[in-house]
Amino acid sequence: MCVYNACFTHNITNHMRTLLTILFFVSRFVSIGQQKQVCISIDDLPVVNYGITDSAYQINVFNKILYSLKKNEVPAIGFVNEVKLFNDSNVIHYQVDLLKSWVSNGLELGNHSFSHKDYNNVPFHLYTNEIIKGETVTKKLLSDQNRQIKYFRHPYLHIGNTKVKADSLNDFLNKHNYVTAPVTIDNEDYVFASAYSRAKQKDDTTLMNKIGLEYIAYMGKKIKYYEKQSNHLFGRNISQILLIHASLLNSDYLNSLIALFKANNYVFVSMDNALKDPAYKTEITVFGNWGISWIERWALSTKRKEYINEDPVTPDYIRELGN
Ligand SMILES: [Zn+2]
Fold first, then answer.
1. How far does residue 104's CA lie from ligand 1's centre (Å)?
2. E strand or H helix at 98, and its extent?
């Protein structure tokens, strides 16, 4: 027998407990369902040095990037310009060793052409020679680990400014077993990085800190912008691919950038896994001189580009410092 009030309280407590259990599982399910994915890709390896050729400096920049990726278990891919591995025809051994440590740490390497030629400005045969010339060392480093080179990233994201040029390059890449590495979260990290390098050369740590914080805030806005564009096009947030460069700025701020993605509910995936998203099967049918995000290419191709005035801009003072 129970007193009415006690019984009522007991039932309410039971209901509450059941409700809380359901809410717990629903929230778990929803949060797993909303888990966003990003692949971090880093271009112009081993290092974008902004004219500082000192080996200790470059080794430090590279190793800090590598350390941040490893510490956070980020399965990143780096795209190499092998011209940086040679002094005339002599191999610069420490630069090759940096790439070797990248591969031996389980990270992925891709081809970014030998010397970063622009497909908008050079003929097909010269550009494709650059691709072949640009794979020699990378291929060897990967095969030493029983791995194969797979991805090609177009310098300046210039895939061909006409359909004919783009198609002939795609045929070439297919024949040589390359897969194009797209970019969705495009940004001007290189402008911030140039400004940051200038501030470093002036030993202006106050300015360096200011640029670094500005960079992270800007990248936060870029993430939101491309999520919004993705939602417009696909009705969901696709597996994103971020492009950044192997600069001093990113060596100092990669931890913060990774934390920013985590705070936005992202998990980090490999290029292989990002490209499993069916969005990447969307055809590109419109071509131009532009080096833009694949999301914008698809939007132009499907004539569904919403006119959004929200693409975050690089602040003028950063641009002036960087130029
Ligand atoms: Zn590049």
1. 23
2. helix 93-104
* DSSP classification of residue 155: G
pLDDT of 225 > 70? The answer is yes
Whether residue 31 lies inside any domain: the answer is no
Above 80 in pLDDT, residue 18?
Answer: no
Gap from CA of 13 to ligand 1 centroid (Å): 61
Considering only CA atoms, which of 157, 186, 187, 184 is closest in space to residue 169?
Answer: 157
Domain that holds residue 84: 36-322
CA of 30 to the centre of ligand 1 (A): 38
- Domain count along the chain: 1
Cis ω on the peptide bond leading into residue 123 (within 30° of 0)?
A: no
The alpha carbon of 297 and the centre of ligand 1 are apart by a number of angstroms equal to 19
For residue 309, name the pLDDT band (cuts at 50, 70, 90): low
Among 185-189, 209-213, 216-220, 304-308, name the one with the lowest average pLDDT: 304-308
DSSP string, 108-123: EEEE--SS---TTTS-
Backbone angles phi, psi at 206, to 5 degrees: -65, -45
Per-residue pLDDT reduced to its tens digit, 81-115? 999 999 998 999 999 999 999 999 999 999 999 99
CA of 98 to the centre of ligand 1 (A): 18
Q: How far is the CA of 115 from the centre of ligand 1 (A)?
A: 9
Residue 174 within any structural domain of the chain: yes
pLDDT at 191 over 90: yes
Run of H or E residues at 242:
strand 240-245
C-alpha of residue 49 to centroid of ligand 1, in Å? 13
Establish if 137 belongs to a structural domain. Answer: yes
CA of 113 relative to ligand 1 center, distance in Å:
9
Residue 116 alpha carbon to ligand 1 centre in Å: 6
Assess if residue 123 is contained within a domain: yes
Residue 228: CATH number of its domain: 3.20.20.370
pLDDT per position as a tens digit, 142-188? 999 999 999 999 999 999 999 999 999 999 999 999 999 999 999 99
Q: Report the separation in Å between the CA atom of 155 and the middle of ligand 1, taken as the mean of its atom positions.
A: 5
